[in-house]
Backbone:
C-alpha cells in the first residue's frame, strides 16, 4: 500500500511540475520541430506556430497570423533548402554585398552564426514555398525564436530572409534588412 501511495505521489508531482512550467527562451511551439546539425540550427514551424512577432527598430512587438495555405516542412525539405540557400547566397555575394560589411556580418562567412525559422505555404500554383528567416544568434530580439515566427525590421545583415520554391528548387525573395 505504501508503495502504491508513493508511486501516485511521485506521478502527481512529476505531472504537476511538467504541466506548470513557464514558457522561456528554451520553449518550443507545440507544432514545431527543433533541428540542429553540424552546419545549422533552426526550428520548423508548423501551422499552429503561425503567430508571427514583428519587431520594429524601437523594439515594439506586434503579433499576427499569416497565410491561409500552410504546410509543415520536413527535415528533408530543410536539408534541400539549406544547400540551395548556401549556393544562392554565395553566388549573389560575389556580385554584390547588400547591407553587409562595415561592421555588419558578411552573410556567406557567417552562416553558422544564424538560427533559422522554417515555415511553408502553398503559392497560387499549389507549389510548396519554404520561407526561411535567418536571425543572428546573439540578438536580444530573438528570445522566442522557437515559439513563433519573428520578423525584424532593420539591423542589416544580422537579420535576413529568403524563400525557396521546393518544386523548382530555386531561391527567390532574398532580402537583407536595411540600416535602422
Residues:
Amino acid at each position: 500500500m505504501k508503495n502504491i501511495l508513493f508511486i501516485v505521489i511521485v506521478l502527481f508531482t512529476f505531472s504537476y511540475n511538467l504541466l506548470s512550467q513557464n514558457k522561456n527562451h528554451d520553449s518550443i511551439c507545440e507544432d514545431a520541430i527543433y533541428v540542429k546539425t553540424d552546419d545549422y540550427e533552426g526550428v520548423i514551424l508548423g501551422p499552429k506556430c503561425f503567430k508571427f512577432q514583428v519587431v520594429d527598430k524601437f523594439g515594439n512587438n506586434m503579433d499576427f497570423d499569416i497565410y491561409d495555405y500552410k504546410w509543415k516542412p520536413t527535415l528533408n525539405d530543410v536539408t534541400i533548402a539549406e544547400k540551395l540557400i548556401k549556393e544562392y547566397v554565395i553566388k549573389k555575394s560575389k556580385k554584390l554585398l547588400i547591407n553587409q560589411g562595415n561592421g555588419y556580418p558578411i552573410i556567406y562567412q557567417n552562416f553558422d552564426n544564424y538560427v533559422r525559422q522554417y515555415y511553408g505555404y502553398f503559392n497560387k500554383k499549389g507549389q510548396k514555398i519554404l520561407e526561411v528567416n535567418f536571425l543572428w544568434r546573439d540578438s536580444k530580439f530573438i528570445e522566442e525564436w522557437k515559439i513563433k515566427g519573428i520578423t525584424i525590421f532593420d539591423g542589416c545583415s544580422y537579420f535576413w530572409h529568403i524563400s525557396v520554391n521546393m518544386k523548382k528548387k530555386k531561391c527567390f525573395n532574398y532580402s537583407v534588412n536595411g540600416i535602422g
